[in-house]
């Protein structure tokens, strides 16, 4: 499905809010123009005739219209905000749902950080630009068209001169703004370069001194600093230039209208009321023309963010599970690899005709050099990657015949790098599963003798050992039959390590346990185990 179609499908869910928002925007614009037209009516008709009753009536009408405009703006903002927030919520939910279905190996092509940025930032930017496009650019164009028609009906020559002057000037100002942006980018780049040089000098002080490179780094910092000053000066000169140019142009446009308008009034081609009308519309025209010019850049930005946001849906989903059994019944708890072949895309083959079997109530320590595929074995069991050839089975049943939910309810895993969310001990173990009570968590922690690690269950900052224990308890509460432990005792103190070995010894009595380690464990606490060395 094309990006445009996906985006429209989400936007059209809130078509009622957008339609009401557009209609109220049109009404707000027309009311604003009508209010200013009343000034001409008062000057032209009622002041010369000293009809103060009519002036009071018009004043009351203006007050009513101002109140009506306020109500319209409230409805307008409510509709667009509701549509914006709803759109963001739906798109983010849709993206997260899709990410749960995509193939794990696609994270190598598009990093999770990029996907996370898409979900959090790009969706908000897309919604914000869309709202701004409708509320600001659309109403600005409408205002300009209406005012242009009104003023054109008063005096064609003066209207064309005024609109051409504003248009030409703003085009020149836009070019100046682009120069400003370029200077700002150059300044930012120069500042980053200087910071990097200083950081290198500070972090490598000993090496610099040892090799006598002090003069070189001092000269480099001086050169980068000089470059930074030049970029800063160029950047800051353009700021007052832009503002001064705008103020000068507004002043010139007022003088232009007043001088030409006065001559036309004298010649009888323009009335005093019409001249005042030109002057009254001037600030609004200047203010809205910048929004008109931003229309094209906003459309370009909207297209970019739409592609960044909705292209996530194009990522390949995982193949549908073949067998969706409600209840999994295995004759025996075994994990077996038969003639398994696997290698990452564009990389050498890690496993060729790999065969091994892990029986229930056993512990196997998997050793081998880095990069030989120890952790990859775990990924294959969890079907994070699909094997090229062969079969992996649990209890004699191929893992390809199990749904992913079934498979991952049977297999539990704890990595060296434990994943922690914002929250206390209970929230990190529960991970949103409200069926797990605080009492159950405490009982499980005490059962495996991990209570020493938590003096305060409400704490939200954790040591390395606490993170590992949280991950272990989190896994055990889901009661898996096969447990995969990936170097979970690395960088722990001796006491915590000893307690974890006792934990492993306990769970090995009823489960299949695979423990990755760079070395064979010489520890009596852990009990009997087999070693699988991957070379």
List the helices and strands and how they pair.
Elements: H1 3-11, H2 15-46, H3 52-99, H4 112-154, H5 156-203, H6 205-210, H7 214-267, H8 272-310, E1 334-343, E2 349-359, E3 362-367, H9 374-381, E4 389-394, E5 397-398, H10 404-410, E6 411-414, H11 425-430, H12 438-447, H13 464-476, E7 482-486, H14 494-507, E8 512-516, E9 530-533
Parallel strand pairs: 3-8, 3-9, 6-7, 7-8
Antiparallel strand pairs: 1-2, 1-4, 4-5
Descriptive keywords:
2 domains, alpha/beta, five-stranded parallel sheet, Rossmann fold
What does this structure look like?
The chain is an alpha/beta fold. Helix content is 63%, strand content 10%. The strands form two sheets. Strands 6-7-8-3-9 form a five-stranded parallel β-sheet, with helices on both faces.
């Amino acid at each position: 499905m094309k990006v445009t179609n996906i985006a429209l499908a989400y936007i059209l869910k809130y078509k009622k809010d957008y339609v009401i928002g557009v209609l109220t925007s049109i009404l707000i614009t027309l009311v604003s123009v009508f209010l200013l037209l009343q000034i001409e009516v008062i000057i032209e008709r009622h002041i010369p005739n000293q009809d103060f009753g009519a002036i009071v009536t018009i004043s009351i009408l203006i007050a009513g219209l101002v109140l009506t405009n306020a109500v319209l703006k409230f409805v307008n903002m409510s509709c667009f905000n509701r549509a914006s927030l709803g759109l963001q919520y739906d798109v983010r939910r849709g993206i997260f749902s899709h990410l749960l279905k995509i193939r794990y190996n696609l994270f190598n092509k598009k990093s999770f950080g990029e996907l996370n940025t898409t979900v959090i930032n790009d969706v908000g930017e897309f919604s914000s630009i869309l709202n701004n496009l409708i509320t600001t650019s659309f109403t600005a164009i409408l205002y300009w068209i209406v005012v242009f028609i009104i003023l054109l009906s008063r005096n064609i020559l003066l209207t064309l001169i005024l609109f051409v002057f504003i248009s030409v000037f703003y085009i020149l100002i836009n070019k100046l703004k682009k120069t400003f942006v370029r200077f700002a980018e150059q300044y930012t780049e120069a500042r980053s370069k200087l910071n990097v040089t200083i950081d290198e000098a500070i972090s490598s002080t000993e090496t610099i001194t040892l090799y006598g490179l002090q003069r070189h780094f001092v000269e480099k910092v001086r050169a980068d600093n000089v470059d930074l000053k030049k970029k800063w000066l160029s950047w800051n000169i353009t700021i007052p230039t832009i503002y001064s140019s705008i103020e000068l142009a507004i002043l010139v446009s007022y003088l232009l209208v007043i001088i030409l308008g006065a001559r036309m009034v004298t010649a009888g081609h323009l009335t005093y009321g019409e001249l005042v009308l030109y002057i009254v519309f001037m600030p609004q025209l200047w203010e809205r023309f910048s929004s008109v010019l931003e229309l094209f850049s906003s459309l370009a930005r909207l297209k970019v963010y739409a592609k960044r946001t909705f292209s996530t849906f194009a990522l390949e989903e995982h193949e549908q599970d073949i067998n969706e059994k409600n209840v999994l019944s295995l004759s025996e708890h075994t994990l077996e690899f038969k003639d398994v072949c696997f290698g990452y895309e564009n990389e050498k083959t890690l496993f060729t005709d790999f065969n091994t079997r892990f029986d229930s109530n056993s512990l196997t320590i998997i050793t081998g050099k880095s990069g030989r595929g120890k952790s990859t074995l775990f990924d294959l069991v969890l079907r994070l990657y699909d094997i090229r050839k062969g079969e992996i089975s649990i209890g004699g049943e191929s893992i390809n015949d199990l749904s992913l939910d079934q498979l991952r309810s049977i297999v539990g895993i704890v990595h060296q790098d434990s994943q922690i969310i914002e929250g206390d001990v209970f929230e990190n173990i529960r991970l949103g599963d409200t069926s797990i009570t605080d009492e159950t968590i405490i009982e499980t922690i005490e059962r495996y003798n991990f209570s020493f690690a938590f003096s305060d269950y409400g704490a939200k900052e954790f040591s390395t050992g606490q993170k590992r224990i949280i991950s272990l308890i989190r896994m055990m509460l889901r009661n898996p039959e096969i447990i995969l432990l990936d170097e979970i005792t690395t960088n722990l103190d001796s006491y915590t390590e000893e307690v974890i070995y006792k934990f492993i010894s306990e769970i090995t009595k009823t489960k299949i346990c695979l423990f990755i380690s760079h070395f064979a464990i010489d520890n009596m606490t852990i009990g009997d185990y087999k070693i699988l060395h991957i070379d």
